[in-house]
Structures are given as structure tokens and as C-alpha cells.
Amino acid sequence: MDCDKLILKVNNLSKKFGKGCSQCEKLTGPEHNSNVCPKCGTVVALQDISFELYQGEILGIVGESGSGKSSLVQCLYFDQEASHGEAYLCCFDNGLSNILKAPESKKRFIRNHMMGMVYQNSVRGLRLNVTSGGNIAEKLLSADMFHFESIRARGKELLGKTEIPLYYMDEMPKRLSGGMQQRVQIAKALANNPPLLLLDEVTTGLDVSVQAKVLDLIKSLQQDLNISMIVVSHDLGVIRLLTNRTIVLKNGRIVEKGLTDQVLEDPQHAYAQLLVHSML
Amino acid sequence: MGYVAVQGGTDAIENSEKLSNYLRLKGKSLPLTVKQIQDQLRFLVDRVMGEGSLYSPFHAALAIKQSEGDPLEAAFYIRAYRSTLKRIVDTLPLNMQEQRITRRISSAFKDIPGGQILGPTQDYKQRMLDFSLVEEDEEAMHKALSDYEAELKPKPIGEKGFVKVVDILKSQGLVKEAARETEEAAADITKESVAFPADRSSSLQMLSRSETGGVLALAYSSMRGYGSIHPTIAELRVGHVPVRIPHPFRENETVTIGSIQVTEAEILAKFESCGQDEKPYFTLGYGCCFGCNEVKAISMAVLDRTMKEEKADAPAQDQEFVLMHTDGIESSGFCAHFKLPHYITFQSDLDRLRATQEKKSKKEVKTGENINDL
Amino acid sequence: MTFEYNFAFIDENAKKEIRRKLLKAIAIPGHQVPFASRELPIARGWGTGGLQITMAIIGPEDVLKVIDQGCDGSVNAVNLRKLISKTTGVRTTFETHKATIIQTRHRIPEVPMKEGQILVFQVPLPEPLRLVEPSEAETRRMHSEKDYSRLWVTLYEDIVKWGSISIGASYPCKVNGHYVMSPSPIPKWDIYKLHQSECLYLFGAGREKRIYAVPPYTDVEPLQFADKPFEVESFEGLCCCRCGAVDAYLDEIYDEETGCKYHVCSDTGYCDSRLGGLERNGL
Questions:
Q1: Which among A271, B36, B247, C257 has the fewest CB atoms less than 10 Å away?
Q2: Prediction pTM value
């Protein structure tokens, strides 16, 4: 893998829920309009997903609910175990080892040092009864930073970057608004300067005005830090605003990929066309 | 001075023992014989054998006498005594088809092959205090015995024993045969510590030794709706079953070394299926314990089933939660240990509290500054 | 009817199992090794873990000391000592330096222990991570991956909230650079005695069925932030009203009549030997 340009390369990633049979792959997908195998009941959440992510790029993943888009980032973040496939991260073993097959301790290292994840529901990304500062500290401590005042300083810096008033630092996130919780999640995800940030429907469920602010924040962070991102959303507005390239998922398969402008202005696949037109 | 004299502890323990014994005897009633306890406090003896995890009515009765009727304490004596015994041989799996049934009921079917056998039970007894028991004497006892024996019409026992209700359902494909993980040698939780998730044999052993009230409380939580499995009792049996060991010298031969009374409960729970094309089946829960203890066997069967739930949403579904908190010897021991002195830890806590109070009162001012510079 | 109990109560096969687990524990310092804890005539939570270790390693030549809260004479220590000496017939002592095996609850003796001596701890809760994670399956994974960040976060939160770490006894320690271990509820005062010690430390948790060990000359360090050093209990300006010691962990005691607070050594063996020494010196 060419580490000068690429940050992540994914080959033939598949994720099945269920025991699977020989027919699963043939009997599911966009042409069947289903991801449930009629033979064995297995859910084929993802099948043969391959793509690259370039340095400093924001890649969008769009699709309806059940298309597999969240499963994809969760497999990459090891929240779910991929059934099959390979993923290479430039900063891990010079991009030579499949991170999906790395031992558990290495996976933890990758999660703590090389990736950040922001979930739709902050319960998944934050400990709600640990202070915002403590949430950020957990990431720093897992990267062996054991100097209390440095942890405090880094926490303040991150809260500043994510535009959270500093007096929230020693508050529990359960007392914060949804928009603030997402900012704390982003601050936590960025704690160890990961080269890759995964964002799973981060603005879904927020008020429109708050959405816009969080999206602005993500955009400016990306420009400041030159961090690579994968943005999962069902919202084409989010995809249009943030991403350079886009992948369209349907029933666990990639049906279209290309530059975001191109995909949104001139979609080729029938489903992508439907999706884009439904936005109007 | 409050200094604890070294002799003081020794004397205190000895005096405490003497006083306890005095309180046991000072009513001057005739001493209870172990035989009396064994004969007349059957349910207590059974419970102590089960929780003490040693089948010996004599030792259980002695423990009950020594603990003055405290079942937890009596089971504790039995467990400790058990630790001193050499394990000579593993018995062969019991064949429950051979059980000499004294009681057998099914709530699933009105009529079952072999018939429902009510047997000796308190279930349909009106729970009114029987004051005639106050006056019970030897004469009354002998009369009751001879009257009942005269009524008895002995019936030959069938050769084949009773078919199990669950086997009937299995043959009709309504219940799925459990994966035979017991084909492998069953674990022995008294020789190897249990790791979680625990295998089924370890889990059943732990439940079988657990405290009756403990398993009942957790099973009841499921019955009331915290992770309900809608149980139906397929079959509840009480009776003696032969215990066999491999013949020490002759291969492929076995020796019967005695029999034990056990209560066995099998419950049917809500059905499930694995895949779309797969048929749904009833699921099973299994309980079995020493002696006659029906509430425990049923509770155990319910918990055996609740713990199979893939995702634990209720306490009764969480295997670690259930198994780690139902052993009477362990829980009562730990509860009692809080009576031990904790001077050192408390002194350390005091030190922390005083230091923190001091820091906090100094910090009040500092925190004010902090807020300003934030 | 009488019954003859085995030497040191438990049967020989059970002892062998415990000794095998002890060897494993010594080979992996700080790692909790599961063992099939036997029930003893002492209640769970009253020292059955320590007792099983002592019973598994004791021989007729050993000299035994048993302390609870540092004290040889407290009822629980007396009771345990009685049980062990009744079932083994070994000699017992109150003097730290004369013992080959010392069984303890909540203290490490003040007199430094030497090579060849063994200190057996009674442990109520062996899992330092239980504070942050209730599941055993999960804490075992955390240990194997050295995943201690959540425990550290509680220390961080303590400092944020209280200005200092609020853990008193059972202060978590890192052993030999890997496993975080509960030192049993000894005070912070005793933590440094675990580090690079000459004697062998064995820990037994009977109810939780775990054995672990700190072999001689092993690094043991309390978890601490680089800029927030670990603090032991302070007895500044206080001394033992009995032997005058200023270098010992002190119990706080209230006088029955006057209600006044005064202090005595928690390690009674140490206090007595100092008194003996003072008397010998004609003081």
C-alpha cells in the first residue's frame, strides 16, 4: 500500500450476522432488494466492500438504514468483528498487516492511538458519569500519559478546539445538551491526535441549528489538523457539506462511488438516483 | 487503657463457646438425638445436604443439632467437613429412568404415561397450625403408623420405570435435544475454579449447591417479569435413584454403591428458532438437587434457562450475576465478615477524609480562582 | 464418636492443587490464579484464602505467627492460630523475626521480613478493577491487555473532585511492570514494604477463589501520577502511648473515662518487643 498517499485501504470486507450458507451472497444484495438470505436467514450486512481513503480526505458513506454503513465503520473500529476481508492502515506496521486480524491488544492500541470514533448516540462514546475531562483523560491515560497537569492541559486544549466552555470540563456529560455531548465525544476522539476519525451519523438527532455548528466544527478541525475522516450519514446535506468523495451503499453492497459532486449531480445507479432525487 | 490483651482474645472465645452451649441446654428439655432430626426434620436435613454438597443425612442432622437449627450454618459445617474427605472415585452419570418415584407431576399435560403421582406433599394441605402435635406422644405415633400400614396395598413396581415427559416431546420434535456438551467429562467445581462464561456442567453444579432462598429470589424475579421465560413444569420428580461406579477390577462392569434421593425439575420455556428455515422449538431448563426440595429444583431449572439468553437484560439472565451471588456459604460468610475488626482500613479512611477535608477547605479559595481563569 | 483430621485439616490432594497454583502465581507476579477454594471451618470472608495457603505450605518444622489488624491477640487471630496449631501442632510465636510463616489480615509487620520468611495475606476482594467493572470475564480481559485506563480515570476524577486520591486501604499497585494488583486492605503505610522485599508475599482470596503472589525482589509501585506523588497515612506529631514509637502505624483509641483520643501501635508484636527492649535497657 502506498503510504505517501493512502491512509486506509479496505479489501473485500464482509460482515454476516448468522451462520451463513453457500447461497447467502447470491441471494442477497440490491438486485434482490434485501440483505437477508432467504435460505438460512443470515443477515449479510456487508459484502465485498473495497475502497481507499487518502491522506487528509473526507470520505462519505451514504445509504438508507440497514444498508450496512454503520456496520462498516464499526468493523473498522473493531466494535464488530468483520467476517471476512482485509484492512490496512498506513500508520500500523507501515500498512503491511491486516488490522482486522491483529491480536486484541494491538486492536486496542490502534483504537487508542490511530483512530477516533464519534457515535450517533453519545452513550456509546462517552462515560456519562465520568466528567468530560475524565472522558478525555481516559484516552490519554490509555496512551500512557501519567502526568496529571499535562492531562488537564491537554483536556483544556481539546475543549477549546471543540468550542466547549471550559467550565464544562469537570461536569458529567449527562448534564450537557446533545450538541455539547457530541463535541465532548469529538474532543475525546481527537485526544491522541489520531490520523483517522470515524463519524457515525454524528448530527442525526440534533436540532438543525446545532447540526450546522457541529458540521462547521468538523470541517474546521479537518482543515486545521489535516486529519482523514470517514463520515457515515443518511443525510445527503451532511455528505455534500463535508465530503470529497462518496460511496453509496445499498443492502450491504457498494452501488456507486466517486467524487461527491459527481455522485450527487449525476448519479448512475438507479438507487443512487432515487436517493438523490428524494432529497429534493 | 484500651489495649487488647493477648490472652483476652483467647478467653473471650472460650467463654463465648461456653455461654452458647449453656443457652442451648438451659431449658433442660431432653437432648435432641441426631436420629430424631434425621427422621423428623426431613426437609431441613435435605436442604442442608444440598447446600452442604454432601449426601449424608446423618452428618447433616448432626450439623443441624450443632448449629441449633440454623440451615446456613449447618450447611457450612457440612462443606467444611467435606473439605477433609478424600475423593476416591467419580460416580457414573445417574440414570433418571431408574428413579424409584415417590412423587411425579407434570403441569404441561393432564395425563402422562405412568400417571401423575401426587406422593407426599404439603401443596394441598391447609396451612393451619395443628395443635394436636403439641400433645403427640409415643402411643399416638405407634397408632398412626399401624393404622397407615394396615391401609397399604403394595403394588409391584413396573420394570421399565417411567418415561420422561420431556423425552415424549423430544420424540415429537417439539423440544430440541440439548447439545451434548456433557459427553466430555463434566467439570468438578470443587477441584477447578469456575471461569466465566461457565460451561453448563459447572453452572448446574453451582446452582445445585446454592442457597435455596437465593436461587428462589432470582428465579422469582424472572417469573415476575424481569427477563421472563414463561416456564411450564414439564415434569417434577422426587425419588431415590441408584448410584453406580465403574467396577474397580472388571472392565465394562459397574457396581451399585447405594442410592440417593433427588428432586429433579424440567421446565419448558418459550420457543425459539435459529434461522428462518429452521423450525422453532421449546427450550428447556433443568434443575436437580439432593433430597426433597422442590422450590429449589424448580428455581434452578428456571435459572438454567434464563442464563441461556444471549444478551442479559435482567439480573436472572446474567450468568455471572446468578452464579456468583447464590452460594449461601460464600454470601453469608462475607456478610458476617463485616463483624470483624476493620480498625486499620477505617483508620486509613479517616486519614483520607481528614486530609481531603483539609485540602478541600484550602481549595475553596483556589477553585474560585480557577473559574476565573477558565 | 471421634474423627481424626488430616495434618493441616485439608486433604493432601487439595494441598497439592493449591501448591501448584502458588507456583504459577509466583511465576507471574501479581496475576490472579483461580483455584478451587475449599470450604474451611472458618467462614468465607474470615480468612479462608490465607488459611488455605498456610495449610497447603505449612510443615511440622514451621513457626507460625497470626495477626489481625497487626494484633496477635484479636479474637480472629486467636481463632485462626488455634485452628492451625490444633490441626498441625506447629510452634507459634508473637515475634516477627522468629516466624517462618506469618498469616495476616490488613497489615504488614513493622519489622522488615527477611529471606526465607513468608507473609500470607487474607484477601477479601482480590480484583482491583472491580471498582470500575463488575464482570469477571471483562476484568480478566482488561488484565491480559494491560487495559487499566478506566482505573486511572477514577484516580483522575478523585483528584479533580477532592484534590487528592480518596483510596485509603487496598491501594492498587502495579507489580513487575504489568499486572495491577490489590495489596489486600493494608494501609498505604505498608505499601512500600511490598517493593523489592526480601520475603515472599502470598495472597489468598477464599471466597473469590484467587491466589496471587509477589516474589522477593519484585517491583511493586502504587499507581500514581508523575506530578501527584503517592501519600501514606500521616501520624505527624503522634507517638505510641505504650512504647513511644514514632515510626509505626498507629491505632486511634478513645479513653473510656476521659473520652480523650490517644494512639497505640497497631503491630502489637512490634510494640511488645520495643517495650521488652526498653525494659531490658532499664527504662
A1: C257
A2: 0.81
